[in-house]
Design a protein that fits this description.
Blueprint: E1 2-4, H1 7-15, E2 19-25, E3 36-41, E4 50-55, E5 58-63, E6 66-68, E7 72-80, E8 83-89, E9 91-93
Parallel strand pairs: 1-7, 2-5
Antiparallel strand pairs: 2-3, 4-5, 6-9, 7-8
Length: 95
């Protein structure tokens, strides 16, 4: 698996502690069944359930149940007004 992020995203992750994880989340509510990938700061509790990828000083844990187009994990920094969020592109999540 190839890890891709631009310099702004890389710097943001460095400031947040150098470790992030990509998880598959099922939101609660009436429209259950949909699975969404999320990006969170920090190491997972059960690291054996994740692929470990590195890019220089940054480590990214990716949930093994998530597949990616062309085997590329692209982490992007989304800026909305005063809020910065990390997102993942190209994920194909199965239940």
């Amino acid at each position: 698996m190839e890890l891709i992020m631009d310099s702004n995203t890389y710097e943001f992750v460095l400031k947040k502690g150098k470790v992030i994880r990509v998880d598959a989340v099922i939101p609660k509510g009436c429209c259950g069944g949909m699975v969404f990938p999320t990006v969170e700061v920090g190491k997972p509790v059960k690291s054996e359930l994740y692929h470990e990828l590195s890019l220089d000083e940054v480590t990214v844990y990716v949930k093994r149940s998530i597949d990616f187009k062309d085997d590329r994990v692209k982490i992007i920094l989304k800026k909305t007004l005063f809020i910065n969020n990390l997102e993942v592109e190209g994920a194909k999540v199965g239940i």
